[in-house]
Design brief:
about 15% strand, alpha+beta, 10 helices, about 220 residues, single chain, 6 strands
Length: about 220
């Protein structure tokens, strides 16, 4: 149920589209921190209206929001499991031919750099691989798993546990059943994905897929 809903490609694509539109829209403001603080108070509909009323129709943010409001969600052209190279030993990476090494992302503790700058760098790289013009940059969305899925911080969630007639706070990782569920969900979340506008040609989609495959998949 969880993976079929919260990790569904359509949901992940829509979330990345919203984030991409917001990040681009944010560049119009000098005080970006204040901008994000105020943005938290808005509903999706209010956010969409704000962007549409304050950007020209040829703006990337405007085009993305228009797609979302018309139900034109980006489609997935690439997906690969994510592996932390720190967990691999020797030639163990050969056992993961469909997995991506993420050391380049984990090397930086700057989450803004990881989830904004590096993601944008890859989107630009895929844009170039498909020979698309710069004005089509909004048509590619790169998804990288959230920090909590990578670090596994959910296992440190405090839970109230009964001991005889008293209660004590313990970490979730002390419950074996929780760990099993967590590992299942975490595996579903630890994926790198690339989404594109459905209007791109089959050739353009194939070029983006091949570029992602070349960059991310482990070679023997």
């Amino acid at each position: 149920m969880y993976t079929n809903c919260y990790e569904h490609p359509i949901k992940l694509a829509a979330e990345r589209m919203i984030l991409k539109a917001v990040i681009h829209f944010r560049d119009n403001f000098s005080d970006k921190d204040l901008f994000f603080e105020r943005l938290k108070l808005l509903t999706d509909d209010q956010l969409f209206s704000l962007i549409l009323m304050n950007t020209p129709s040829n703006d990337q943010s405007y085009k993305i929001i228009q797609c979302l409001m018309s139900g034109l969600i980006f489609e997935q052209v690439y997906s690969v499991d994510l592996i932390n190279p720190m967990n691999l030993k020797g030639d163990e990476s050969k056992d993961y031919p469909q997995s991506v090494v993420i050391g380049q992302f984990l090397d930086t503790k700057d989450l803004k750099r990881r989830y904004v700058t590096m993601v944008q760098d890859y989107e630009e790289k895929f844009l170039s691989a498909a020979n698309l013009p710069e004005e089509d940059a909004w048509k590619i969305a790169f998804h990288f798993p959230p920090e909590e899925a990578i670090s596994g911080t959910e296992t440190r969630i405090p839970i109230l546990k009964k001991f005889n007639d008293t209660y004590s706070v313990v970490s979730a990782w002390t419950f074996p059943d929780f760990i099993k569920v967590h590992e299942f969900i975490r595996d579903a979340r630890l994926k790198v994905k690339v989404f594109v506008h459905p209007g791109l040609s089959p050739t353009e989609k194939a070029l983006i897929h091949d570029a992602a495959k070349k960059d991310f998949e482990i070679r023997e």
